[in-house]
Write a structure and sequence with these properties.
This protein has 551 residues and is of the alpha/beta class. The protein contains 16 helices and 26 strands. Helices cover 30% and strands 23% of the residues. The protein binds flavin-adenine dinucleotide (FAD).
């Protein structure tokens, strides 16, 4: 398979030559650099490349070209290569057009001319975009293969796990791939168990649990030491931010994650409103950066390990893991966030993972190319998923129960402008039907009372979240819904919480038990935003440092 391509398009020969030279110097070994001096010629070339099944990783296009502007080019190019990263080369005067196109064409970056020195201005930007492209592109390669079926929930679980850990794999669907069926037959009897996962060393796992899969791919599932200064439960934005700050300050930190790092944010195809990223950043790109940063400072991160119970033993806090292991530490930070509400609509439970997915638009979108899919929910998370799915699906119907969506205006405008997206307001989901896979849904118009049947192949559900705090249910004070109370919300008429022994009030993010802190969406009163969670993680570290001085 030929190397993927970086396309550079510019009508000015001097600029085109200079871009080509800089791209070749840095990326020439891993990518083919194709310079073209005209938008239409580049589009014609792209169509031929597509027929030959060649891959395009990135477009670097000048905005100012006669006949076709850079934005117009990218608009058409993304129809052919929706996954390729899009960078616009602009003059200062084009800045407004570039910013406007962030929404219209999903521009990843606009780069101001001149881009010299490239080591400072060009390569860092393109390196990150190409890393992100690599992480999301299912490239043919001789690595892990997951052989399964779309109707197999355990196949979905394995794919989601590897995707969220950004471990490349090749997906082979037995229903559409004769080669995959043959491989299964040749492997002998698996009694229809899926997925079958093959590795380069020749070993095979059949329908493994996540811990076995994690161990096989080299993730840490066991703590290296019996005790730490700080144990952080959960590696969403709050947990990872705390891990970065704590470990960079020399606090000996363990992070325990029951699934994969990134939390809810990791399932977001594009976080548009995170400070400092004008073109948005995908949840797993943000996660990848945060995980590398935390590890670089020495934090240890366990995957596929849930904390089952937290308890207090003398001056130690004990974290009991699901496999029975106990880890002792001086402080615990609970950053377990929230998990998706599941549908209780008739028919939905049996199709979970086999056509109905919770927050998994990223993992499954490619499997529904040219298919009709539903998104349930009207908030930003649903809107982001609809936008992402529209890159692949033929049609995306967004089912919103109320008369108005709750999504931000910028996102709603983008949804309305997207021809593949249909928004159905006042629409109640009544029933989900399908034999082993989703086939159709019954919806009711809450304004007219009229019911109708809609055909579709998959449903992505975003109907809110609930806090995950069961591991401290008997230990710290929580709200009726399970949010953990911290700081001043624990003081009733100025009185400290029951059992509180210290001569001070609980710190801002401290729970009703000294030395146990909470940050992010799991905490009562938190604002459910990536930036807020990151901020709380950072504040938690500052408070934990104060606490550690006293024990
Ligand atoms: C699809 C989607 C899109 C979103 N888009 C945006 C956006 O664009 N902008 C924005 O600001 N916000 C967005 N949000 C909200 C934002 O992602 C959350 O507010 C943020 O992730 C909360 O961070 P957190 O660290 O508190 O918790 P979470 O992100 O929920 O992370 C908690 C982590 O703890 C782990 N965990 C839970 N229980 C245990 C246990 N017992 N043991 C070990 N680990 C455990 C979970 O597996 C998870 O990884 C979005 C949310 C979703 C779902």
């Amino acid at each position: 398979m030929a190397n993927p391509v970086i396309f550079s398009i510019d009508d000015d020969p001097m600029v085109l030559n200079a871009v080509e030279r800089d791209l070749r110097a840095h990326y020439g070994q891993d990518y083919r650099i194709i310079p073209i001096n005209q938008g239409q010629a580049a589009l014609d070339y792209l169509k031929k490349m597509k027929q030959r099944d060649e891959m395009v990783a990135l477009f670097l296009v000048d905005q100012r070209m006669p006949g076709m502007t850079g934005i117009e080019f990218l608009n058409q190019a993304m129809e052919i290569y929706p996954e390729a990263k899009r960078v616009l080369l602009t003059a200062y005067a084009d800045t407004e057009a570039a910013i406007a196109s962030i929404n219209d064409i999903g521009l990843d970056y606009y780069l101001m001319k001149p881009w010299h020195p490239p080591h400072e201005k060009l390569y860092p930007v393109l390196d990150e975009l190409l890393e992100d492209w690599k992480a999301h592109t299912h490239r043919p390669f001789e690595g892990i293969r997951i052989i399964g079926a779309l109707w197999s929930a355990t196949s979905h679980q394995a794919k989601e796990f590897l995707t969220r850990h950004q471990i490349p794999y090749r997906w082979l669907d037995v229903d559409h791939d004769a080669g995959a069926r043959k491989m299964i037959e040749e492997m002998g009897s698996t009694a229809g168990k899926f997925p079958v996962i093959t590795f380069t060393d020749g070993s095979i796992l059949i329908d493994p649990d996540l811990k076995a899969l994690a161990e096989k791919v080299g993730l840490h599932t066991r703590a290296g030491l019996p005790s730490y200064d700080l144990a952080i439960i959960g590696s969403g934005p709050a947990g990872l931010a705390a891990a970065v700050y704590a470990s960079s300050d020399g606090v000996h930190t363990l992070v325990v994650e029951k699934a994969a790092p990134g939390g809810q944010a990791g399932s977001s195809p594009k976080i548009e409103n995170f400070f400092g990223f004008p073109s948005g950043i995908s949840g797993d790109d943000l996660t990848r950066r945060a995980v590398s940063q935390a590890k670089r400072f020495g934090a240890e991160i366990l995957s596929a390990q849930a904390a089952r119970k937290i308890s207090v033993r003398d001056s130690y806090r004990i974290v009991e893991l699901e496999d029975g292991t106990e880890i002792s530490c001086r402080v615990v930070l609970i950053a377990t966030g929230a998990s998706f509400h599941v549908l209780n609509t008739p028919g939905a439970a049996g199709l979970t993972g086999t056509g109905i997915y919770y927050g998994a638009a990223y993992t499954e979108a490619m499997n529904f190319k040219e298919k009709d899919v539903f998104v349930v929910g009207g908030a930003n998370s649903a809107g982001q998923a609809a936008m992402y799915l529209s890159r692949f699906a033929r049609k995306v119907s967004v089912l919103i129960r109320g008369p108005q969506p709750a999504a931000s205006k910028y996102l709603y405008d983008a949804l309305i402008a997207n021809e593949k997206i249909e928004i159905l307001l006042n629409t109640d989901l009544m029933e989900v039907r399908g034999e082993g896979k989703l086939e159709e849904v019954i919806v009711k118009d809450t304004a007219t009372g009229e019911s109708r049947v809609l055909k579709g192949d998959a449903m992505f559900v975003f109907i809110g979240v609930r806090p995950q705090s069961d591991m401290v249910a008997d230990l710290v004070e929580r709200s009726a819904k399970g949010h953990i109370l911290t700081g001043s919300s624990l003081l009733q008429e100025g009185k400290r919480p029951k059992g509180w022994t210290l001569e001070r009030d609980p710190y801002l993010l401290e729970t009703s038990v000294p030395g146990i802190f909470a940050a992010g969406d799991v905490r009562m009163g938190a604002t459910p935003r990536v930036a807020s969670a990151v901020g709380e993680g950072a504040i938690a570290h500052a408070l934990i440092k104060e606490y550690l001085k006293t024990v």
